[in-house]
Amino acid sequence: MSWLVFVLVFWLATWVLNARLALASGHRAVRLAVPLLFGITLLVVWEGVVRGLAVSPIILPPPSAVAVKFAASLPQLWGDFVQTFVRGALAGYVIGCGAAVLTAVAIDRSVFLQRGLLPVGNFVAALPIVGIAPIMVMWFGFDWQSKAAVVVVMVFFPVLVNTVAGLAASEAMQRDLMATYAASYRQSLVKLRLPAAMPFIFNGLKIAATLALIGAIVAEFFGSPTRGMGFRINAEIGQLGLDMIWATIAVAALAGSAFYGLVALIERWVTFWHPSQRN
Amino acid sequence: MKKVLTGAFLAAFAAGGAHAADDVTLQLKWVTQAQFAGYYVAAAQGFYAEENLNVTILPGGPDVAPTQVIAGGGADVVIDWMPSALAAREKGLALVNIAQPFKSSGMMLTCLKETGITSPAGFADKTLGVWFGGNEYPFLNWMSSLGLATDGSAGGVTVLKQGFNVDPLLQKQAACVSTMTYNEYWQVIDAGIAPEDLVTFKYEDQGVATLEDGLYVMEDKLTDPAFADKMVRFVRASMKGWKWAEANPDAAAMIVLENDATGAQTETHQKRMMGEIAKLTAGSNGALDEADYQRTVDKLLAGGSDPVISAAPVGAWTHQITDLALQ
How far apart are CA A81 and CA A233, in angstroms? Predict the structure, then answer.
């Protein structure tokens, strides 16, 4: 009971504090403190409620237990991270996004491909991951290659559609200007149309960044070596190691956010000229 | 306020439910198939109704861990393998075995003869397919008793987490895969591999068998006489179903087929499965054989550097239910 009272008091106190901070001047540190405080409150409430109501650790372990497990299994978590994120997700992301941008340029060039390839891309995107994953395991084996293949299929379409839309984004007046300069196809592509497409391409890349990790983790449910984040979740559920599952989820969330943040940072650097990047 | 409400509810139940059948929810370990024929037969033949029970059978699947279902209150009784149930018990989920309809284990490793494996010693440096999610314990246990490392180091075995099919064997990605005598073995045969091209190692023959498909309930609920009485009737009717299924395997397979909502099972496969299942349930009247239990625990405790359970469980089984059900 005392835990629940503490949680309530803590929650109200941080609420009041946060409301004041949010209204206060926009200093950088203050702006960072608001979401941080919110996150900490969430964890404290979770811990307090689990303890206060004596929730079984099999249903929901307290964050402290997850943190202890996390700290105790760093080598294992790191091995899983390398297997799933660095090998599976990242390799698939690079291959899939690269192929999608190249395909989009080809589609943009040829009406034939536009009519033929886009619907096929749409079709591939509609394939359910649980259907593709076992097939990829059969084709590419149990190791990370099959996970990368699933990721390629998942990220290809969003990047493709965004890039195709982006390549059409430059205005007729701008293209006419390039034509009056006697710019070749290649010159107008590199100097006008690809830069103009960048905001769109990065939109696709950001969507794909989160999809890639999901794809790599889920693909491991259908056959994997004895390491990887998806394998860990799948194996631990059988022995009710919920603390390990939450620790793996924490790694996935951290890796996913960091990856997304990195792509957003590159976007800012590449599309500095775009109105959305101005402060 | 809460007490008053609960009291009112109880009164309403007592008044309205005097003649209504008692509800029991059973969580299966896997999808609807002849592996669970006894329960479907007991429902279809009215054995549950005779005991005034209304039994709901929940099919499982690759994404369902029975231990988690019962921990979340989703079922009254679950079917699980003893290693997984004992591991869960050690993690703080107090499961108790109340009946053991399966006497023998149906688990085996099936290898291609062309890999040159003729005995378990031949597993060294080979790739073996294993199920995870609680089903890996018997395997890990066996390997550690053979002295083979499973972490991929030289001289040990390389372990693949196989999906619930035999593709790794057909694709030659693994030298051996896990199979059940009643299910995946026949998938290999159906895929066109002749039995003489296969070498199989039954856990039962290797002396490393652990108990499969037992009935487990939460320990604290057993102290409730109403619940215990419900379980007595449930076990009695289920065992009647099992013995009926053993005596009428083809009819039992058809009952299972009728209950397969997915339509994924075929008549040939279910009849064949029922024939194999009957061999495993034969010799059990439902009561857990203490010697079998002890053998399972000894095997699990001897699990080398990474034992499934670290201490001999206390109170993990009871004859309280079967003593009354089978008298």
Answer: 12
